[in-house]
Every structure is written in C-alpha cells, then in structure tokens.
C-alpha cells in the first residue's frame, strides 16, 4: 500500500471540494488503484487506509474538528 498512499491522499483531498454524493468511497478508490495503477493491494488495506486518512485530511483542511466532527457551515446573512 505504501507506494499508493500519495495517490489515495490526492484523491481524498480532491474530494473535499466535490459534492458529497460524488466523492470516492473506499471501494471506488480500490478499483481505481487496481485499474489505473495496476496496484497489487487488497480491498481491506485500502479500506483501512481511507478510514484512517479521511478524518485526518478533513482536520488539516479545516473542514472538521480534531474530534473528527464536521464543522457547521457559516450562517449566511
């Protein structure tokens, strides 16, 4: 999984600006790795990595708190 972590991280970062229903699931990330990169990884490896990294990426982007909760949207005036 190590050679593909940067690819998955980039996908998760790109998903920050996409509508919720269009974001990559762990399943889709796995299939893209296998189809586009020829990755020899298991689905479970990808699923665990996505589950660990997605909250971290959300916190770094400022879209979630350190407890993993999403920040409420700023009210419009």
Keywords summarizing the entry:
single chain; 77 residues; mainly alpha; 3 helices; 53% helix; elongated
Structure description:
Helix content is 53%, strand content 0%. By secondary structure, the chain is mainly α. Helix 1 crosses helix 3. The longest helix has 19 residues, at 43-61. It starts with a helix and ends in a 16-residue tail after the last helix.
Q: Number of DSSP strands?
A: 0
Shape: elongated
Radius of gyration: 14 Å
Low-confidence stretches: none
Tell me about the biggest sheet? none
Secondary-structure element order, N to C = HHH
Q: Kindly report how far apart the N and C termini lie.
A: 46 Å
Secondary structure class reads: mainly alpha
**What is the mean pLDDT?**
88
Number of helices: 3
Instruction: Give the helix level as a range of percent.
Output: 40-55%
How much of the sequence is in beta strands? under 5%
Short structural description:
With 77 residues, the chain is an all-alpha fold. It has three helices and no strands.
């Amino acid at each position: 999984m190590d050679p593909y972590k940067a690819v998955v991280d980039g996908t998760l970062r790109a998903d920050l600006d996409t509508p919720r229903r269009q974001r990559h699931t762990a399943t889709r990330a796995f299939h893209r790795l296998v189809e586009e990169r020829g990755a020899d990884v298991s689905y479970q490896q990808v699923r665990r990595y996505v589950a660990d990294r997605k909250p971290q990426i959300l916190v770094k982007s400022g879209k979630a708190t350190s407890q993993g909760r999403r920040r409420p949207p700023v009210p419009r005036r």
